[in-house]
Amino acid sequence: MDTVSATAVVPSVVTATGHPLQCAGAWAVAVLARRSRPEEVTAADLDRVVAVVVEDAVRAAIAEKGTAAYDWWKVLFALYPNSKATHSKRPRDAAVLREALTALFAPDAVGSSAGGWPCTFCGARAGAVWTKSTLPMFDTNMALNTLPPNVPGWPVCRGCRVAAWALPYGAWVTAGSVTVLICEAPGVEREFVARNVREARRIMQLGFGARRSGARPELSAVRAVRALRSAVPAAATLWTFKNDNQDPWLRVVRTRQSLARFLAVVDGNAEPRRGWRLLELSLTKRGRDGRVETSGPDEAARLLFESDDGRGRSLLRHLHHLLHPREDSWNERDRAALTRLAFTYAEEILGMNPHLEPVATLVADWIEHGSGEPRGRLAEYRRVALNDYHLGHLLNRAQFRLMLDGRPVAAGPEDWRPFIERRPRAWEHRMLLAARVIQLLQERDVKVSDAAGSADEETERLVEQPILEPADGDFGDEMGEM
Ligand SMILES: [Zn+2]
Predict the structure, then answer these.
(1) 360: domain range?
(2) Do the Cβ atoms of 197 and 32 come closer than 8 Å?
(3) Centroid of ligand 1 to alpha carbon of 84 (angstroms)
């Protein structure tokens, strides 16, 4: 029974599947076709998208080396190194190239004579088989012989073939790598793709030289999550890969599900928002000419992602190094802001609810009132603050000292167990404790350093600027939808 009744729902020509590359490509098709979702794309839309993709590829394939237009060829080469548009022996005649590329996206044959293979990605009937020359990340020389013998390639339907070549529009691209985003909240995927489609146009016109230095896909992804203003828990995952003939690789980083909630809390509260700006400014590096070389907002966004191999940097570790430099230079307000940011991250992202006050008070009391100079005891505490064993010793001594002196003792061994036991998040407990201890001392006017931590007007102006905004501007990023 293969007959189709007149009232049957027309199957969509493009479906976003769970495959990260296909999914990014399907969203790119939707954005290029000005549809709100891939499922709304019509066959006529697909024709128009094919024309755009082919024309852009033709222009890139015949561009002179070293021109801005040639940069799009580098993008295509990173994805389809052996295709008709990128091969070193490609024709330099636009008409010949156009015909060859258009043929890749020919409609699937319909009717009973059509091939019976389901599409590798979406399961729709596929009229073509594709191999690695046209499919990114398929069958690289790192993974040979993945096709069974006598099988000419993977069946791919027209919608997924167009998606595979719309991919560079929907991905964050560099001259050698591609990053796609997967998120449980589809609106985030669309937002990320829409930003990249605008960026693709800029690369084609102006080349990579026009991209601000230090720009990173993580900031684009974080801004996409934030733009949704949704409290729905949804993790964002970034897949970054290189697909050339020599040395392909893949790297995956992801955020926690509670990222949107964390961003909302930081955005909506002056103290952690100030902390986030201070973090961004601490990560900003400028060259001698004053131009940004490392962008703080981009680097800060990176700290919200964790890599599967555990090699990523940690936001709390970075905040700890910021809060405990050798020469303490934070004034009370800025220290409070950075400390509040650390607590917000621990609560919203890590789900921690640390009970710090009794133990922090004990340590601060001991530093303030123990024998000798407070500064010497502070130095001693800083040395052991992150070490479970030595911190336990210090807490015992502090308790004993205060008791001998007849002072109130704010905490006992029950209170400090979470800080010295070897269990998950113990390091984070100790880090937050150290932040709170220094903050308490500063509130009590215990002199903990020589630096006054004064802030000049220019610094204050920078701190007051909005968070997650690159310093040198990102023209086009905030332009309306296409
Ligand atoms: Zn398909």
Answers:
(1) 259-463
(2) yes
(3) 21
What is the average per-residue pLDDT within 434-463? 81
Q: Does residue 46 carry a pLDDT above 70?
A: yes
Ligand 1 center–CA 300 separation, angstroms:
37
Give helix 413-420 / helix 388-404 axis angle, nearest 10°. Answer: 160
Cα(155) to ligand 1 centroid in Å equals 8
> pTM score, two decimals?
0.88
pLDDT in tens, 347-385: 999 999 999 999 999 999 999 998 888 989 999 999 999
Number of domains composing the chain? 2
Give the tokens for residue 50: 């094919």
Measured in Å, residue 8 CA sits from the centre of ligand 1 at 20
Same domain for 164 and 123, yes or no, is yes
Report the distance separating Cα 72 and Cα 335, nearest Å. 45
**pLDDT digits 0-9 by tens, 2-14:** 444 444 456 789 9
Specify if 429 maps to a domain: yes
In the reported structure, the alpha carbon of residue 370 is separated from the centroid of ligand 1 by a whole-number distance in angstroms of 72
pLDDT in tens, 188-234: 999 999 999 999 999 999 999 989 889 999 999 999 999 887 778 88
Ligand 1 centroid from CA 174, angstroms: 26
Claim to verify: residue 299 and residue 416 sit in the same structural domain: yes
Residues 213 and 322 in one domain: no
Q: How far is the CA of 240 from the centre of ligand 1 (A)?
A: 22
Mean pLDDT of 158-171: 97
